[in-house]
Amino acid sequence: MSDGRTTVVVITHNRRRELLHTLDRLAELPENPPVIVTDNGSTDGTAEAVAHHHPRVRLLRPGRNLGAVGRNLAVRQAGTPYIAFCDDDSWWAPGSLRGAADLLDRHPGLGSVTARIVVEPQGTDDPIVEELRDSPVPGPAWLPGPALGSFLAAATVLRADAFRAAGGFHPRLWLGGEEELLAADLAADGWWLTYADHLAVHHHPSRVRDATLRRTHGIRNTLWFTWLRRPVGPALRRTVDLARTVPRDAASLRAFAEAAAALPWVLRERRVLPPAVESRLRLLEPSQRSSKARRYRG
I need a surface site. Which of 34, 62, 192, 268 has the fewest CB within 10 A? Predict the structure, then answer.
């Protein structure tokens, strides 16, 4: 039952207990995947605990918190054609890594496969699952599931070469909606993203989190993505829409201030998406007005 096509990549920061639970679950998978953990500067003994309890796991210790770029470091070390991301409080269901690899093997134009997210301990679908199933993005007839405009790093298997060619996660975005920019760049490179309802990831949300900081980064990163990749008209409309729908609080004000302060490098790096990819993003805007606004409220 072992399957050597996929490496599981996990980033972590000061969540020793949750990470060890996740690694226990990954060690039980029939696929027996190689696992790489990037410890983003933990100070709670995470790295030592991983080395002791899971010596087969490859442990990277950059010495500071790199956010999502910690995944980039791990992907550079991976030797498999596919990469499965999961968070330190989530884990793949048995057989799902094999199922995702089968889809990627079968469809050479497919860049990523996102699985259903099951929230524990309730065992219920995450609310985002309904949005994934009902994605309005049109896709080619060969696509094995709904076409997506983005993906969720905690529940996605990607083609490693496509990830590397697109540049991985942008170093300035850190964490919080960091997938949107990478997903658009994958689409611009010609890759399709899909959702597979028969695959699953379990997520037991950690209580060790700064929801306000994550919300600030989510708003800021959405603005940066919009200014980096959208044409002027849609970028202005999206910016105004965000300003109208996010909470009027200190976190939102900080997000807009950080985004505006970065305009010099944003304009230097600005690269508008191809029209076909931009048209897909426009189809997503009605659902974003409700879904994104809810998440920005925490």
Answer: 268
Q: pLDDT averaged over consecutive 10-residue blocks of the chain (298 residues)?
A: 94 97 98 98 97 98 96 98 97 98 98 98 95 96 97 97 98 94 98 98 90 93 98 96 93 97 98 97 79 42
Residue 146 has a CB neighbour count (10 Å cut-off) of 20
Q: What is the pTM of this model?
A: 0.94
